[in-house]
Design brief:
By secondary structure, this protein is an alpha/beta fold. Helix content is about 35%, strand content about 15%. The chain contains eight helices and seven strands, in the order βαβαββααβαααββα. The protein has a five-stranded mixed β-sheet with strand order 2-3-4-1-5. It has a two-stranded antiparallel ribbon with strand order 6-7. The radius of gyration is 18 Å and the shape is globular. The protein binds zinc ion (2 copies). The site of one zinc ion (ZN) has 7 residues, from helix 3.
Length: about 200
């Protein structure tokens, strides 16, 4: 059976999720041309699995969730979520050298390959790499885990500005577990969750 090496899968905020947060892997020192090449490579992978919902940016930067995609993409050896390209290009997330060198060896063009429908997405490499390469940014974890009652009234001003920036509230509920506030337009979180948990600023 085909075994694909998974990368770029992030914590989803659930209590038992073992994945890390992208904030732990920010590397602004990276080469801009390489970042662009990787963006192109990551965006053009073969579609492997399609999910029902769209992903969201863990930085709550305002990108439309449609842009983050709803599929996993692959090149026959590696597999990643469609939204990973955005993290690399916009949030300066670094990726494992093993993957970068593989993409480089392909001339940053996705090879013509068949992805088997029953291939296994193996996350063990990614878990090990994340564990060994995290910048130890505990804040990233804390932002995810902060309880709603820690939200201070002083933040109301920030929420107002976030609502203004996003052009209002959407006609749907925030997807943070237990939150029943209305989400911001174009985002999956309400102003409070976007700011307190995702570190979004107007
Ligand atoms: Zn983003
Ligand atoms: Zn919320």
């Amino acid at each position: 059976m085909q075994r694909l090496i998974a990368i770029g899968f992030w914590n989803d905020g659930s209590d038992d999720c073992p994945m890390h947060n992208p904030q732990e892997f920010i590397d602004p020192s990276g080469d801009v041309a390489l970042r662009e090449s990787l963006f192109h490579y990551l965006r053009t992978g073969h579609s492997f699995a399609q999910y029902l919902g769209f992903s969201w940016c863990r930085f709550a930067c305002g990108i439309d969730e449609n842009e983050m995609g709803s599929a996993d993409l692959g090149d026959g050896v590696w597999i990643w979520p469609e939204g990973l390209a955005h993290y690399v290009a916009r949030h300066e997330i670094r990726l494992p050298n093993e993957f970068v060198e593989h993409a480089r060896a392909n001339g940053f063009r996705i090879p013509e390959v068949e992805l088997q429908g029953d291939a296994i997405e193996d996350t063990s490499f990614w878990s090990d790499w994340c564990g060994a390469n995290t910048n130890g940014d505990a804040d990233a974890q804390a932002l995810w885990r902060r309880a709603p009652d820690e939200i201070e009234a002083a933040d109301n001003d920030i929420y107002e500005k976030l609502i203004e920036k996003h052009g209002g509230l959407a006609d749907k509920i925030c997807m943070w577990a237990g939150c029943e506030n209305q989400a911001l337009k174009g985002l999956v979180f309400c102003p409070a969750c976007a700011h307190q948990k995702m570190n979004a600023w107007p």
